[in-house]
Design goal:
Length: 250
Amino acid sequence: MQTSALLTLAIKTGATPKGLLLNHFSLDEFRRYCYDVYKRQYTPGKEKCFTKTNETIENLINRQSCRKYLTDPIDPEIIEAIVTAGTYAPSAGGGQPWTITVLADKEKLAHFGELMTADLAAHIPGFQPGAIVDNHGTRGHILCGADFAPLLIVVSEAPRQRTPVVSSALACENMMIAAQSFGISSCWLGAVTANLIAPALEDADGDPLLKSLVPEGNRLIGAIAFGYPAPDGFRKPRVPRREGAVIYLQ
């Protein structure tokens, strides 16, 4: 059942979210219901300056990097749907160069989060986990810690591709938008990719978990965290779209 239908039924029947969960819907449907309410309450105003829209465009515009997640696990079937969407990204010559490594094990994720925290502390003077930071005029958390996210996906690709990086980056975007359609937020881990994972791949004594994220010989493209967003997971205010980024030729 669509989230909008859940909300309509709740209004008509006066049912509480708990009542909807117990009497009518699955846990995933309930989470989508809660996420829809969450977006209405916490997401900054939708940046619409056009009249034609649909659910896909809404997901594209409202996806925002989330840096604090709930600890709820993501259903394996949803993970499979997200990853499958990644494999249907465009690729040069249909080559599909990507390898998608999925990490959902709680203990391994905790270890990865601890490595993230130590790396951030080494690169940011005075860094403290859980601190609120300012960045480009916004305020919010830095994603780290043992419970940083319930899902990590790392994308790499085989060498000697016709269009290096591009096809695999498109696969990453596909997965983030697919996740958004399920009410699951995401964050591209750029600093983690460059400062934590990449050096471990070149180090003979690198952390075994980090080395396992990328098959030997592959080129690392990026790492993405996924999870259901915490109420304070988004930096505010949202950075406005840059003026002059689009040029219409007459």
